[in-house]
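Why do we care about 3D structure at all? Because function follows from shape, and shape follows, mostly, from sequence. That is the central idea of this module. The next example makes it concrete: a single protein chain, its amino acid sequence, and then its structure expressed as C-alpha cells.
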Amino acid sequence: MAWTTTDPKSSTPSGSWNTSTHPSNWNTHPCPTGYRLPTKAEFETLINSSTVSRGGGWSSSDYGYIKFTSGSNSVEFPAVGWRNSSDGSLGSRVGAFGRYWSSVTYTSNADNAYFMYFSSSNLLVDSNNKQVGFSVRCVR
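And the structure:
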C-alpha cells in the first residue's frame, strides 16, 4: 500500500486500498508469525476482570488512553482513532476514541467483525465492517 505522505494525521492511502479482504485468515492477519488478534471473549474478559483507568486529554493534541490492570500486569491502549472505509481518511475525533479489532467475525454478517471500543466515558465490545481501519493489538 502506498501512502500520500508520511504524516499519519494527514496521510491517506493511494489506490484501491480497501478492496481486498482476508476472511480466511482474519484471526491472524496482519499479525506476525506466532501472534494473533485477541478474540471477542478475551476483550470481554479483559474489560470485566481488570481495573480500568483512563489518562490523557482525550483530544487530538493530547491523546487519551485506557489502561487495564490485573494484579501486577497492565496493558494500555491509546485512542488513536480509525481510518474511514470509503477513502482512508482519518475518522473524526482522533485522540478521543479507540477501536481495536478482535479476531471474531460477526455471526450475522461475515463482512463484519467484533472490536473493542472506548472513549473517555465508554467501554464496550461491538461490531463493524472489516473494511474500516481500526487499530490492532497482536497477542501470543
